[in-house]
Write a structure and sequence with these properties.
Chain lengths: ~260, ~290, ~240
């Protein structure tokens, strides 16, 4: 476990710096107060740890406010006999929720597609040619669902893959933004997601400044999308820094 | 299916770079679109759309149901897509399930808007009969018969046409019952309500091949793509949904550029679709 | 319930030996090697044939000298009145098997060893007689794909309600609980390839109903032949022009 005792958990709130024109959504336009008292552009503190599951090739645990996720990576290991030969590696993702993850028992069908969305986010960033004929399995378990589940899952999975030593083009980070009325708020919690007018989830590679996955629902105008994108890119690069620190700490801890 | 040789790949990419695709189209031109409504007799609304070699059928069925406890003042809409093995032998058995669920998810995202229902293409409140007790459940089923690329656009157009063709029977709620009993409803056979589809968006998929984007890719061109962005734009010019597919990363400025190109293409596409749909309905009424 | 009124007219106005209207078209799925749409009244089926092509799953191959014929039958969610279609339910599996056996009997499989022929059937609208419509559509699709066959396999159904044998039952008449006999024949060779019946019938009645269904098959065979000839004329015209 890599977290130093006593260190404050870092957060990755973005700042719209260097913009000559004012952002469209001011904090003063409050038709919504956030349940945990954050500002609209304030993210939850991010706690990330690697090495949570000792029997896996790599694993990571992420706690963003009330959203707690653990991801373990197995592989590269031999593909099942049934699968045909392939000269690039294969990726297999599975996302499951514990029964106590959300306040209502037996959540809806939203979560069935998280496996395929996680797969889509990761397949663009892993260098599959480095492990031909084998499979990398990514198993994600959501211990508590407190909002922005998919974003936390993607960031945590990328950390686990790095911990397992799978070659990737870059770390990927994901941030989501919710639009309620006229306000944009970053890193929404479950209550905000339940009554949002639109959602914007972006996965990007911070060092390469490229977006690998983008999902928008609800009605958006182009200036809104612009602003949301800027917010997310800034937050993603800050989250990338936090993830790198976490990995450095874990390697220096294992060196000691 | 036979693979594409290296020479063919260069030909496709080079043609796109020079604004002349393999079938002679420009980068932002659609293949001829053919719309036919009323193809399924016992559905409330149905349509068949052919874009080049891609052939899809959409049907809308309305059934009486109970609104969910989380949103008692709205009806429910469910989208299911089925990829028939006639389109592609690999869709047989369980092969087409992954593609079907991906398409269904993207369509649901475009049609239903945010969780609160804002920006939805379909007005869910219009499906309500009695608050908390009775509402219409709309089941939208899409079937892909023949696939030659650009399935999402064709399905989006088919669903729009099917919704325009949908007639929901008028319901009379009989005398007020006590709160916990199901009210009696009388579904009339004669009067029908036409569905209001002016806010149903149209989906445009932009496929990035090399450094250029094309609209309405054929299956060959899709095999060469680095990534594709499907943008759904409604009549007012607002984005109703966006999904990025494909592994490679895109610069944010590229995405913003794609959004503006999509808006530009949507204007012409929306008008063309509307005129095609009304022509199809006129043909259906004559026959 | 009265399925045949005293004047001899059925619920949809047909006489006892009248078939529903047939509409058939070839070449609807551009990607397939052969395809066809076949409509009998309100029952509408699309058939697509892919093949002969390389065997995909070697474990299914039993006999090296013959082509492997695979068939899959699926119904669209909106095909029946209430939307309840589960994929891979027992009826679909049974029908896939039945149609596969019928088509295998009429394809000259020994001419195409080490290969696989896939027949996919998609039901768009089901209103009784889907089995027969599928076999007829598959025959047209196989002819469109140029696969050598012994003869055109055609099929028709007949039933017995209100003491009258009735040709080509629709869904309402089929669910009435009377007997339903489906016959598949090779018309020129005058052989029966498929014979199925639900419920029970006395022997003489069965022979009458069977004869009626066979007559229906011959009429369908005529129609299919016309469609194929028309298609060939079109191809010839386009080639000459």
């Amino acid at each position: 476990m890599a977290a130093k005792p006593g260190a404050a958990t870092p957060t990755y709130s973005p700042k719209l710096v260097g913009r000559s024109r004012l952002p469209i959504f001011k904090d003063s336009d409050l038709d919504w107060t956030r349940p945990d008292g954050r500002g609209f552009h304030q993210c939850r503190p991010a706690l990330l740890q690697t090495g949570a599951v000792s029997s896996a090739s790599g694993s990571a645990y992420a706690e963003f406010g009330n959203t707690k996720v653990i991801v373990s990576v197995f592989g590269p290991r031999e593909s099942k006999k049934a699968m045909t030969y392939s000269d690039v590696g294969r990726l297999n993702c599975n996302v499951s929720y514990t029964t106590f993850a959300s306040s209502t028992l037996g959540q809806g069908t939203d979560h069935k597609e998280y496996s395929s969305m996680l797969h889509q986010a990761l397949e663009g960033v892993i260098i599959m040619e480095t492990f031909p004929k084998t499979t990398v399995d990514v198993f994600a378990l959501v211990l508590e669902s407190g909002g922005s589940d998919l974003s936390v899952l993607i960031s945590c999975a990328s950390l686990a893959l790095a911990d397992a030593g799978i070659m990737m083009y870059d770390l990927i980070t994901a941030v989501s933004v919710s639009c309620i009325g006229k306000s944009l708020m970053i890193d929404p919690v479950t209550e905000e997601e339940g009554c949002e007018d639109g959602s914007f989830m972006m996965t990007c590679m911070p060092s390469r400044y490229e977006i690998t996955q983008l999902t928008i629902t609800g009605e958006w105008t182009t200036p809104n999308i612009n602003e949301a994108m800027q917010l997310c890119l800034d937050a993603c690069s800050k989250l990338g820094e936090i993830m790198r620190d976490c990995l450095k700490q874990s390697t220096s801890a294992s060196d000691e | 299916m036979v693979g594409i040789s290296l020479g063919e790949q260069h030909f496709i990419k080079g043609g796109i770079a020079q604004d002349l695709r393999t079938d002679g189209r420009k980068r932002l031109t659609y293949r001829p679109i053919y719309v036919e409504t009323g193809v399924i007799a016992h559905a409330n609304g149905s349509a068949r759309v052919k874009i080049g070699g891609t052939d899809v059928i959409a049907s809308v069925k309305a059934e009486i149901g109970r609104p969910s406890s989380l949103q008692p003042d709205k009806g429910k809409v469910a989208v299911f897509i089925d990829c028939s093995p006639t389109a592609e032998p690999t869709f047989g058995g369980r092969g087409g399930e992954e593609l079907s669920s991906e398409l269904a998810l993207a369509l649901q995202r475009c049609l239903l808007g945010g969780k609160s229902g804002a920006g939805a293409g379909i007005n869910l409140s219009s499906l309500l009969i009695k608050e908390g007790k009775v509402c219409w459940d709309l089941y939208i089923d899409g079937l892909v018969i023949s696939s030659d690329g650009n399935l999402l656009d064709a399905l989006g157009a088919a669903i729009k046409a099917a919704l325009t063709n949908t007639a929901i029977p008028k319901v009379n709620v009989s005398a007020e019952m006590a709160d916990d009993e199901q009210p009696e409803i009388d579904i009339s056979d004669e009067e029908y309500l036409q569905f209001d589809t002016s806010s149903v968006p149209v989906i445009v998929t932009l496929t990035k091949v090399g450094t250029h984007y094309i609209v309405d890719a054929t299956a060959e061109e899709e095999s060469q793509m680095s990534s594709a962005v499907s943008i759904s734009v409604n009549r007012v010019g607002h984005i109703c949904g966006l999904t990025k597919r494909g592994g490679s990363g895109l610069d944010p400025s590229v995405i913003l550029d794609m959004i503006s190109v999509a808006k530009h293409v949507t204007e012409t596409l929306m008008n063309k679709l509307d005129s095609d749909i009304s022509a199809a309905e006129a043909r259906e009424e004559e026959s | 319930m009265e399925y045949v009124n005293p004047e001899g007219l059925r619920l949809d106005g047909r006489r006892f030996n009248e078939m529903r209207q047939i509409v058939a078209e070839i070449g609807v799925v551009s990607k397939a090697d052969g395809s066809a749409v076949f409509e009998m009244g309100n029952t509408k089926v699309i058939a697509a044939v892919y093949g002969p092509r390389e065997i995909q799953n070697k474990s299914l191959q039993k006999n090296n000298d013959h082509a492997l014929v695979l068939c899959e039958y699926s119904m669209a969610h909106f095909s029946t009145g209430d939307r309840r279609r589960q994929k891979n339910d027992r009826r679909s599996t049974e029908l896939s098997l039945v149609i596969r056996q019928t088509m295998e009997a009429c394809i000259l499989t020994e001419l195409m060893p080490h290969s696989q022929i896939d027949i996919f059937l998609q039901v768009l609208q089901a209103d009784g007689g889907t089995r027969s419509a599928c076999i007829n559509a598959a025959t047209l699709a196989l002819a469109d794909a140029g696969i050598p066959m012994r003869d055109l396999a055609v099929s028709c159904s007949a039933g017995y309600l209100n003491s009258t044998p009735l040709l080509d039952l629709n869904y309402v008449e089929d669910s009435a609980g009377g007997a339903d006999v489906t016959v598949g024949v090779l018309p020129k060779l005058d052989k029966v390839t498929l014979l199925q019946m639900d419920a029970k019938l006395p022997m003489e009645t069965f022979e009458t109903v069977f004869a009626l269904a066979t007559e229906g098959c011959k009429a369908i065979a005529e129609r299919i032949r016309e469609v194929l000839e028309e298609n060939t004329k079109q191809l010839e015209y386009r080639r000459a022009a």
